[in-house]
Amino acid sequence: MAPPAGQPTGAPQPQHAGQPSSTAQPQPQHAGQPASFAQPGQATSAGQPPHVGQPAVAAQSQQAAYPHGAAPAGVAHPQRASHAGWQPAVPAGAPGAGHPQPGQPYGPQPGPQYGPRPGQPYGPGQQAPWYPPPAPPPPLPTLWERLSQDGAGSRILAWAGGVVTLLGVVLLLVLAIQRGYLGPLPRVLLGAGLGLVLAGIGMRLHSSPAARTGAYALAATGIAVLYLDVVAATSLYDFLPPWGGLLAGLAVTGLGVALAGRWDSELLGVFVVVCCAVSAPILTAGFDSLLLGFLLVLLLGTTPVQLLKRWGGLALAAGLPPVVACVVNIGLAGNHRFGADATMTAIMCGVTSAIIVLLTVLTAVRRPDDDFALALLLVAPVPGLLAAILLPRTGAAILPAALGVLLLAVWVVGRGGLLPPRFALAAGGVGLLALLQATATAFDGDARAIALLAESLVLAALAVRLGLKLALVPAGLFGVVGALLALVFAASPGLVAVPPHRTPKLGTVVSLGVTGLVLAAVAITLCWAVFRLGVLTDAAHAPHGWVPAGIIALYGSTAAIVAIGLLISPDRDGFLLGHVLVTVSWTVGALVLLLRGIDSVPLRVAGLSLVVAALAKLVLFDLSSLDGMARVAAFLVAGLVLLAAGARYAKLVAARARS
């Protein structure tokens, strides 16, 4: 007798009256069943051997779920139902019993194995259901597929027609001016009428979904024509004062971008901005302050919509034209062409940089993951930094310093969590570069090296105070630049190692001493900050930091002590006295380090290294460069100090060994 429909055949059938007992006997294992699916001698349910393709674990789970016999009718085993190639067993005595079904080979069929859905607990005895994996995302369409889509040709034709129409309007205005067609007022009115007509037709067509592609292009072209008409009325015909033209341009830009926001079309806004920015220099007859004002108006007019709609492309399209115009204007003002006022140009460039930085901050607050805002932040300070060449030294230092302070303020705000970390870090890095330029401009000669080294010292101290490892990068940059300038100017090897042939100036000697002190302090502080912040933590890396720092510190201290000798006697005798003091100070420093480092390996190593340095200076420099009593004094004093150091150090070591 066949089992009821949907009932697994692996469970024993109930015994009916008059039914032969052979139907209730356990069925043998089908031919071709692999042994790996059932252990020998292990029954799956009620003495039933496992079926083809059914693991023993699945049979045990079914026995745990239905301990009193067969599963209810219509309930299939989840493992069997999901196993690839599983078919219900054929009842004993039925045709085809013990043979595979048509189209199904012997044994389990290979198939994809899927895992359970995560996050769903299952009780004891329950088998976790199996789910197919998620479908992969569809591939992005290629350029050919996009061009082959319905409507692609109409979009290309519509936007190309808008560009050509706008170019024709510009050429018509230029030709009318050159040949005297009509008068100034009819030209302006004709341009305004054409812009209104094109914008009106676009708004009319937008009500029909089938014609919206052409509506976008017509409306964008009309708005661009209106903006250029305002530029012409202000710069060419003087119908509007500059402030009136800027306000009118702001109104037209605001209306155009507001329309783009209403229609939810970023392409419309970008088209208007790019066309206006490219065409405006043609009507203003070059790059001047008025053109820069119109471009800033274009930027300000797009800001509310791009912040509201989160349109990064529109922000970049409106932010780059003022930067480009400033760079070109700086080049023209530097060459004194077209009567450009260099001071006004520099001020406008600084204002442009500040405005773009503030707008990028607003954009980063609104869209923390926007890469366009970060890119615009990196190029925003370029006009202000380049415009410093147009100003005298005081102004050339104030302009980049103001930008540096603004960018560092942005970094401070970003550290409070109001801005993305990478945005704040970029602002801080660019701000420090601006301060570096301001420092290099404000000071010259020996004072420049001292100022840069002092800034490096302050940055290293702030890095340790704030626990900010990245601040060590600008600190190291300032330190390297300052050290190079010191070696070339303020504390050159000629001043330190060669006796003066004539009396040096007091300012030169003071600069030598201050530079040496600051150089030594920067070397020690930077190395200490590197280890304090954990940049170098392993004891094996200690020589990589302290050896170069010690060499630089020794050079700086030597310069400072030689300057002391020259202050005592500004001649050869003072120079020799300074070097005697250098040798004695090195030996005394070695003694202090050895005594303090009786229990510290780094201090002990530093003291012994300083002893080696003092002996090397005695033999290589003092013996050949010093003469007379200076040479004798250097050797005697250094020898006595070393003898005292050796005796004292041996006594301390012996006492430490006894204790």
Structure in a nutshell:
The chain has 659 residues and is mainly α.
What does this structure look like?
It is a single chain. The chain is mainly α and 659 residues long. It has a domain at 571-658. It is 67% helix and 0% strand. It has helices spanning 56-65, 78-82, 143-148, 152-179, 184-205, 212-235, 242-263, 266-283, 289-309, 312-334, 342-366, 371-379, 382-386, 393-415, 421-442, 446-466, 472-490, 493-497, 506-532, 542-568, 572-596, 601-625, 629-658.
Q: Provide a count of the helices.
A: 23
Q: How would you describe the shape?
A: elongated
- Low-confidence spans: 1-87, 111-115
Helix content: 55-70%
Largest sheet: none
Write the layout of secondary structure elements.
Layout: H1 56-65, H2 78-82, H3 143-148, H4 152-179, H5 184-205, H6 212-235, H7 242-263, H8 266-283, H9 289-309, H10 312-334, H11 342-366, H12 371-379, H13 382-386, H14 393-415, H15 421-442, H16 446-466, H17 472-490, H18 493-497, H19 506-532, H20 542-568, H21 572-596, H22 601-625, H23 629-658
What key attributes describe this structure?
659 residues, mainly alpha, disordered N terminus
